[in-house]
Amino acid sequence: MSVSEGRASVSFRIGCVKYLNAQPLIYGWPGEVDFDHPAALCRKLADAELDVALVSSFEFLRHPIYAVADGVAIAADGPVYSVFLALAGTIDEVTEVELDLASQTSVNLARCLLAERGLQPKMVAPALDEEISITRTRAKLMIGDQAISFRKQHGSRYEYWDLAARWKVSTGLPFVFALWLIRPEVKNAQILAESLRKRRDENLASLDQVIAAQAGFSPEFCAYYFRDCLRYEFGSAEKEGLLRFRSLCEQHGILQPNATVLRLV
């Protein structure tokens, strides 16, 4: 993607999570975008195959070398619908959690919330087959489009322990799932960040157009999901929520103590 600075054209390699929740931030982007799962994008960003990527917020907490595009995030201030533990009983009965390793943010959010509840279930790798292995003692972490499809397919057969809803109850703060992270050596990072904010603003101003363009999801669901479940700001409350997440990760031994401040552009 290229953006103009006066008469000069500046090119950036951009990556974005391949989930529905990112569409209000990336729809209509005027250039090539590498769409992939969060874990793959984190690797590409770390290996300098990308200049900027919309990736899991935990990646910044783990490797705070990146600049953060200020004002823009994928966040939730209550139930998010698409990040949950699927349960066959109650959360207090769970002794094992089958993970979705695509997003370290959701994995570690689940760890923190369960630990805060005094629960320490065994975290296990996802099953190699597609067989559903949810029992009263075994929950399954699901995120993104797969989680949406799962709820559509199974409906009320299972209980859904929404992680963003539990975070809100526990902390009173919104939870930040993803941020635009920019590699430290990228020049003109401010220009790039301004372009990302502008794209978000234009998409939210014409959200009906973004909704109509989504294949595989009904307009009614997209309207509910974008308007009621998600928020796309990274303001003071979201920043406080992100730092609270870091504090809890440190408290529960997921992260080493780190006082690095946000480098915003």
CATH fold group of the largest domain: D-Maltodextrin-Binding Protein, domain 2
Cα separation of the termini: 18 Å
Helix-strand sequence: EEEHEHEHEEEHEEHEHEHHHEH
SS summary, helix count: 10
Q: Rounded to an integer, what's the Rg over CA atoms? A: 18 Å
Reported for the largest beta sheet, the result is: 6 strands, mixed
The spatial strand order of the largest sheet comes to: 4-3-5-12-6-13
Q: Kindly report the name of the CATH homologous superfamily of the largest domain.
A: Periplasmic binding protein-like II
Q: Class of the largest domain, according to the CATH hierarchy?
A: Alpha Beta
Helix content: 25-40%
Based on Cα principal axes, name the global outline: globular
Task: Quote the average pLDDT.
Answer: 93
Oligomer state equals: single chain
Low-confidence stretches: 4-9
Please, how many domains?
A: 2
Name of the CATH architecture of the largest domain: 3-Layer(aba) Sandwich
Strand content: 15-25%
What's the total count of β strands? 13
SS-derived structural category: alpha/beta
